[in-house]
Description:
Elements: H1 3-6, H2 18-28, H3 33-39, H4 44-70, E1 75-79, H5 85-98, H6 107-117, E2 122-123, E3 126-127, E4 131-135, E5 141-143
Amino acid sequence: MNKAIHDLTKDSITLLTDRQIQVLKLRNKGLTQEEVAKKLSTSRENITILESRAYRNIDRARETIEALKDLGMAIRISIKPKTHVLDIANIILKNADKANIRIGTDCVELLDRIKIKGRDKISKKRVTKTLSILILPDGKLLVE
């Protein structure tokens, strides 16, 4: 299953409607548009439109993030394998300070979010695969 689609929640993604998220999750499980339409009591044409608009919104979000990086307004940090989980918050905060970006969360919440979003790259309190973190100008983090 595509992890990005699996992790979609209304709290984390505001560019997608609840219905678009529903459609993406069902399509990601392997259902055809026809099967999704039956399950959601709508037409296949409506599912096509919902899916198309969802992916268009996702593309727009990616383009916005790329524009922020190109303008030097977002910072990408790579956390290398073997880094202890407790050191990650310090690395993020130091890089944010250098760029005059205020992180809008405390260290505990920051580490919890990283552990959840990067769970496939962390084991036994150590980073196992390079963890990429993007700090946006408003202090929000994207864990990739």
